[in-house]
Amino acid sequence: MTINVSTYIVLIVGVVFSLLFTEIVGISPFGLVVPGYLVLIVNKPKAIILSLFIALLTFFIVKFIIGKVTILYGKRKFTAMVAISVVFAFLFRILLPGDYATDIGLTTIGIIVPGLMANTIERQGFLTTILSTSFLVAMTFGTTLLIQRVM
User: Fold this and answer.
1) Looking at residue 102, what is its pLDDT?
2) Nearest-angstrom CA–CA distance, 11 and 77
3) What DSSP state is assigned to residue 17?
4) Which of 74, 147, 146, 78 is nearest to 115 (CA)?
5) Residue 92 contacts by C-beta under 8 Å, 6 or more apart in sequence?
6) Which of 11, 25, 92, 97 is an S-S bond match for 36, by CB 3.0 to 4.6 Å?
7) Are 107 and 37 contacting, i.e. CB atoms less than 8 angstroms apart?
8) From CA 120, how far away is CA 124, in angstroms rounded?
9) pLDDT tens digits for 71-111?
């Protein structure tokens, strides 16, 4: 299903819901911008699965390989998560045939999202993060559908 609402509106609604949820409940989604991004690619399940795969791969590499040979905390750990996920997104873009990488969202913001996801998984765990993000994606999606009807 394609949402005919401006990308900006979807992202803003996602960020506002994410911020409110984080402030009220104290649990972060994959990143403030991620629920809105996932709504934008909701009709591309392969993109969502690949983003989650890259995020988990990044998490395991940073935590169990890089984290064992260097001290990672705070901004260093966040930088490592984003950098490793960008490398994986780049590799998938090279390895996947034709415009497949573009079709499944490995461009622009889609390159950064797996790093945000990996960082949040590391901070608060997979289950908590996936449940909070799923809830916020549903809220953002429903709200954008309502906005679309009003416009």
Assistant:
1) 62
2) 26
3) H
4) 78
5) 50, 54, 101, 106
6) 11
7) no
8) 6
9) 888 999 999 999 999 999 888 878 877 666 666 555 666 78
